[in-house]
Amino acid sequence: MNLVTAIENFKPWNEQEEYDKLLMLAELKNNPQAFDRESLTVHFTASAWVVNQNKDKILMIYHNIYDSWSWLGGHADGDQDLLHVAIKEVKEESGLTEVTPLMEDIFSLEVLTVDGHIKHGKYVSSHLHMNVTYLIEADETAPLSIKPDENSGISWYTFEEGLERSTQYWFKEWVYPKLNKKLELFKQNKLN
Question: In this protein, which residues make up the domain named Nudix hydrolase (predicted)?
Fold first, then answer.
């Protein structure tokens, strides 16, 4: 299924996802450059809510640019298969070699603001990330390794510890709690 169809079929869980879905569909229709970093205003990205096999812990990295513990993920860089992007990013950022999507469908949608920053010695202007999140499982006993150009730490945390570790207000107050609530519904087979 292509991304437009996947987003059209996505059932928003709350008002944030409802409005972000509309914005993403408009960008997909009107901004063919949105899958490339050359777009000045919008980049499509994929993130992963990586859970252990018991689904009681999440994997987080210490993100160097955001200076905070964070989920895993990255830019589409031209790839419109965002599940593929999410899996690739998890492997690159964590050193994990085996990860399993718990569902092929989109788990969550978020439009995220990104402040201007320096990356690889070059200034990147403030912009939006049209972020598609997938639910992915990994073995918490598998070896982990950091990706020094992007993160400086990686660890499994309980949901409460993960929230406590994050210093990004929007993520801590809105995104991560939503993902944890949706995960609880998924575990109960109640996430439609």
Answer: 41-182
